[in-house]
Amino acid sequence: MPTSRSYQDLCGIARALDVVGERWALLIVRELLFGPQRFSELRRVLANTSSNVIADRLRELEANGVIQRRQLSAPAASWVYELTPWGRQLEPVLLTLGLWGLQSPLPPEPAVIGPTTVLLYLRSRAHPDPTEFPAVVRIELDGQSWTALIHDGQLEIQVGETAKPDGSIRTDPKTFRELIGAPSQLQTAICVGAVGVDGDQKVIRRLLEQVVPADQISSERT
Amino acid sequence: MPTSRSYQDLCGIARALDVVGERWALLIVRELLFGPQRFSELRRVLANTSSNVIADRLRELEANGVIQRRQLSAPAASWVYELTPWGRQLEPVLLTLGLWGLQSPLPPEPAVIGPTTVLLYLRSRAHPDPTEFPAVVRIELDGQSWTALIHDGQLEIQVGETAKPDGSIRTDPKTFRELIGAPSQLQTAICVGAVGVDGDQKVIRRLLEQVVPADQISSERT
DNA sequence: CCGCATCCGTTTCGATACTG
DNA sequence: CAGTATCGAAACGGATGCGG
User: For residue B167, which of A16, A213, B28, B203 is within the disulfide window of CB 3.0 to 4.6 Å?
Assistant: First the structure.
């Protein structure tokens, strides 16, 4: 008689998989890396799964101490899910795993690309030149906002509008992904209407230019 | 209509999980980190699953380019499974994931601890003092042999007997795990019969002593 | 004995519908 | 908006079979 679905293995790898190895679990963690999200937002961005699976995972991840539910302040009266300190320690794991996964063949179409994915990519590849910043950029993708804080050679990203931005960019994840590493297309994208920019356009462009040479999302194996 | 079980997400994390996200897949990769293994050996050490699941995973991992089958030389006429170069790149991912997982609560009893687990632990925590080595140590756990090559402040581990050892130790994973970081117990363990040692006993002891202070397998979260 | 394949009961997943 | 309920399909887990 099996004791639930634990691997019952003292190995740290197996114990990690006991906690975050179920289907969709790590993608939920990914979505929470930049800050708390509500149920409907998770559901929207993880569109390939169903609501009961998300609910199950959230329950399990909370029971295992990876995430926690939190009640929003007064008027909203709604709940958000956020990583615990332990859950936040998954970030380096996800970054190296994601880097490894980029060498895999592309998934079958139609494939999605979400806001968190491109923002993770931006953050992991951007090495802001300290002499050109600090700056605050608002990034709106698929109708949700993030704030990018660029200072001291760091690029920090948080959900929501947590600071007054010097400039804003509004587009979709796919277009934003194409703009990263090809910042020269920014002007064109604006004219075409694929991108909207407010405030200081130069700071947007400078942000996009801080990304290392960057191969495209690739299907090659080395 | 779902296209198989792909996440259909261009994110590297999701693409990695498309490849190694199925149950038991990463534990199979773990078992191959130190070199090729045969089916029956995988089955023996991953005792909590059934043979068909292992066979399925091996097929999928091979199809996805993570592992490859190889025919052993003449007399054996048997097959082994080994990581491809791409598969070997999972090692840092597994190490950080395993480190994270050690902070989880212990799995329900009865829990196993396999040879690869303790050897991974040894290798990730040992920082050999270059002045005390080089040396070659044969480690036999649960009847299978590994060779530890200690040189230039590195500890390299391979399956099988790949070099002539200065000393050999023979025990079970649990005892070996307890000995790591508590090398003073070596003499006692030998007398009790829990450990067998051949050749230079001092080199065994010196190897065990190269592990950093090392908390026990812990259930604490930081 | 090794390397699986087949069968079968149980659990999980995925899609849709439904409720407070 | 934030989930729960239901149900068929797929995957898992255990046992057994079977050719080399």
Answer: B203
